[in-house]
Amino acid sequence: MELSNKGVKLIQQFEGFCRSPYLDQALVPTIGYGTTHYHHRAVRMSDKSITKSEATYLMRSQIDMTYGKAVNHLVRVPITQNQFDALVSFTYNEGVNALKTSTLLKRLNNGKILKADKEFAKWNKANGKVNRGLTNRRKKEAKLFLA
Description:
Strand order of the largest sheet: 1-2
CATH class: Mainly Alpha
Helix content: 40-55%
Largest sheet: 2 strands, antiparallel
Distance between the termini: 17 Å
CATH topology: Lysozyme
Structural class: mainly alpha
Strand content: 5-15%
Order of helices and strands: HEEHHHHHEEH
Shape: globular
CATH architecture: Orthogonal Bundle
């Protein structure tokens, strides 16, 4: 499966756009819509600014090469487009290893969809503290997952 336009908009909504490189909460150089890598190298703080169009292209490329690919590989049951989009949004934000080791994935692969959706809410902390933005993101992802 591939990320739909609805999934792209969800990720863009929560990542926000920044034309110049910045350090994310984990102090990783980031640009555009939460992109940490170009095709050939990691983002550097000295990189030039980009447009929204370039940022969307970079985000989609990173999703296609890493996050969407991981969801397709790790999910072993049939899922809907909305479920795929929610899982890619989650994975783009939390990382492949987070999905791989999550109870969310375990429950999903065991066919427990209604229990799996409850797992999104548990991933709402930044630096050990509940984060309002992450809480809102996880609610939207869980809602999309069940839609």
